[in-house]
Amino acid sequence: PSPRFMSRRLPRKSRRKRPTAKAADLTAARISSHSRHPDTARKILDTAAREFARSGFRQTTVRTICRAAGANIASINYHFRNKAGLYRAVLSDTAQRALQRYPRDMGLRPNASPEERLHAFIRSFLCRILDPQQASIHGRLMSREMVDPTGVLDDIVEHVVRPNAQFLMALIRELAPAHITDNQVEQCAMSVVSQCLFQHQCRPVIQRLFPHRRDDLRAVERLADHIWQFSLNAIRSLPPESQSENRT
Known about the structure:
It is a single chain. By secondary structure, this protein is mostly helical. The chain is built from 13 helices and no strands.
C-alpha cells in the first residue's frame, strides 16, 4: 500500500487531558525515581518554582522557564504535559519539600502536650513561609494564589490547607474552655494563621517600620514564641459566646 493510503489508517491523536492534583503527585514521584531524565525534570521543577514565585502563573511563560533551565519545550511536554501540569507539579513538590524540612510536629515526641503541639505548628508554619532557603518558595507561590487564584487553588486547599486547618482546630478544642463553639474555634484558627501570614504578606512594610528587626531563623523562633504565647492566652481565656453571636 502507498504511504498516502497508510496515513489514512493511522489513528488520530487523542486529546490530552488537563492533569489533576493526583497526576501532579504522580509526576513528582516519577521525577524522583522513575523518570528517564530525573536531572532535567528536577532542574525544570526548581527553575519553574522560582519563576512562578517571582512572576505568577499567568505572567510566566514556558519559554522563560526553558531559557532559565537550559531545557527545551519538548522536555516540559514530556515530563509535565503543559504549563498547567508543570504548575501543579511545582505546587505539589514545593509543599512536600517544605513539610519535609519543617514537619507540622517539628519532631515532637508522640505524647507531646497540646501546648507543645500548638507551638510546633506555629513554628513550622513560620519557617515554611519565612525561611530564606527553598522552603519559603511554597509560601511565595501560595501568596500569589491568594491574590490571583488559579484553578489549582481548589486542589491545594483540599489536599494541603484543609488537613492543616483541621489539625489546628482540633488543637484549639483541646486547649479552650469547654464552652467553646464551632464559630469560636474557626475564628481562633484564623487568628493564629493570620498572625503568621501577616509576617510574610506585610514584610516590606515591617522592614521599613522596624529596620532593626532581624530576618534570620533565630528571629523566626522568637516570633513563634510570641505568637504561641499570645494565642495560647487568648484561647484559654475565651468567654462564652453570646446567643446572638451563635445565631450568626
